[in-house]
């Protein structure tokens, strides 16, 4: 009982800070005022990629529902050699942005490693993140701007990003997703969307089911309906990157015996190989905003153990949106059995829990065995797949071998 109360108090404190931050963000009256924050005066190219000696291009992608997304391209390796292999689109997870793929050193970051190995690298950023806060008619101070969940990432962000890379290069591409980046891919694939422009998909820390999630803080938040509480209070932006939260995380990470990997453990599981020296860099760029409705949708998955579209909570609203009383299911068994996929998961991951991944694997048990590669890394947790110091040897080298075959 005391342990449960402690967990809920931690989550309550966390969301109190988020609420304060969100009120500050929602008081901003214009995009110009929003962009006055120093981190928004630059982009991922100038901040994280060009500083490492790589050529980088900034692009803008407009979705069919009006969101303007940033996208980065690394067209050459560090030595300036132009790519001679197909494009690869990298898609980050929730509360992160495309910087995920280039935060580590060039010999440890997948974005740089792919570029140095001849791939044409494109980095996607979902709506609401630092450099994807534009819209054709809304700004982030409007509640309507945040009226979306990962359903809209499936329906709009993902196809717009894939179409853009295809239009720019004239080639089909490989897709690499982490965490939420796998969820939106699985969901799109189950509806046979975007596959005509893809060569293969690499899905790290794969999430299709969350019913067996073992992260105590994630489950406590879902069971307490905390995302719903924010939404009902009118706080439609879930903004963990406010000053109060960053300062708190910085203090905790720098206390004796703590580092960023220890802090992440409460959410992700015990990451084996995330270097504590990443703490300051991680906190400088992450975590980032998403929609409260998106967090509600993920919480619904935790509570129900299913993968469906957003549940509006009553028959009338579901009928209005879907023409049926319950939200439609994303059927994992409908993923085309001949589409090449690489799934990498970890034994210590408490978000993409082993039991939930096993449920996913049962759903794709009839997949062509020549088109499905499954990697299990016993000591890896959620963040290891993008931040581990040994990820190149453990994950990225096998991934590149897979890409080269497809």
UniProtKB/TrEMBL annotation:
Q: What is this protein called?
A: Lipase
Please name the InterPro entries in this protein's record.
AB_hydrolase_fold, AB_hydrolase_lipase, Lipase_euk
Q: Which GO terms describe its biological process?
A: lipid catabolic process
Q: Name one GO molecular function term.
A: hydrolase activity, acting on ester bonds
Q: Which organism is it from?
A: Lactuca virosa
Q: What is the active site of this protein?
A: 179 (nucleophile), 349 (charge relay system), 382 (charge relay system)
**Is Hydrolase given among the entry's keywords?**
yes
Q: Which family does it belong to?
A: Belongs to the AB hydrolase superfamily. Lipase family.
- Give the organism's phylogenetic lineage: Eukaryota, Viridiplantae, Streptophyta, Embryophyta, Tracheophyta
What residues does the Partial AB-hydrolase lipase domain cover?
Answer: 48-104
Give the signal sequence positions. 1-21
Provide the transmembrane region boundaries. Answer: none
Q: Name any one Pfam family assigned in the record.
A: Abhydro_lipase
UniProt keywords, alphabetically: Hydrolase, Lipid degradation, Lipid metabolism, Signal
């Amino acid at each position: 009982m005391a342990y449960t109360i402690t967990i809920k108090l931690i989550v309550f404190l966390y969301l109190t800070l988020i609420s304060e931050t969100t009120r500050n963000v929602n008081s901003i009256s214009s995009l110009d005022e929003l962009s006055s924050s120093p981190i928004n005066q630059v982009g991922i190219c100038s901040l994280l990629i060009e500083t490492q000696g790589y050529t980088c291009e900034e692009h803008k992608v407009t979705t069919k529902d009006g969101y303007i997304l940033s996208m980065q391209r690394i067209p050459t390796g560090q030595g300036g050699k132009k790519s001679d292999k197909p494009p690869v689109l990298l898609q980050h997870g929730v509360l992160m942005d495309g910087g995920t793929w280039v935060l580590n050193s060039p010999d440890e970051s997948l974005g740089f490693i792919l570029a140095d190995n001849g791939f044409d690298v494109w980095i996607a950023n979902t709506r609401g993140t630092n450099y994807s806060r534009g819209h054709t008619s809304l700004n982030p101070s409007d509640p309507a701007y945040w009226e979306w969940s990962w359903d809209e990432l499936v329906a709009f962000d993902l196809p717009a990003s894939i179409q853009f890379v295809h239009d720019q290069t004239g080639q089909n591409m490989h897709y690499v997703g982490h965490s939420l980046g796998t969820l939106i891919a699985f969901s799109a694939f189950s509806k046979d969307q975007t596959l005509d422009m893809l060569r293969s998909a690499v899905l790290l820390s794969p999430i299709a089911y969350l019913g067996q999630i073992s992260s105590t803080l994630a489950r406590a938040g879902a069971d307490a309906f905390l995302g719903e509480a924010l939404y009902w209070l009118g706080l439609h932006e879930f903004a963990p990157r406010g000053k109060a939260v960053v300062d708190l995380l910085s203090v905790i990470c720098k206390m004796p015996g703590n580092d960023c990997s220890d802090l992440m453990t409460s959410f992700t599981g015990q990451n084996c190989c995330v270097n504590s020296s990443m703490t300051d860099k991680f906190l400088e760029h992450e975590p980032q905003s998403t929609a409260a409705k998106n967090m509600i949708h993920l919480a619904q998955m935790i509570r129900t153990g299913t993968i469906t579209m957003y549940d509006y909570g009553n028959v009338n609203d579901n009928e209005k949106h879907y023409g049926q009383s319950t939200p439609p299911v994303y059927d994992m068994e409908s993923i085309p059995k001949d589409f090449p996929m690489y799934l990498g998961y970890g034994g210590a991951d408490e978000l993409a829990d082993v039991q939930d991944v096993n449920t996913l694997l049962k759903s794709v048990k009839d997949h062509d065995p020549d088109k499905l590669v499954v990697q299990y890394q016993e000591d890896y947790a959620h963040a290891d797949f993008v931040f581990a110091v040994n990820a190149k040897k453990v994950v990225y080298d096998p991934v590149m071998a897979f890409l080269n075959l497809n």
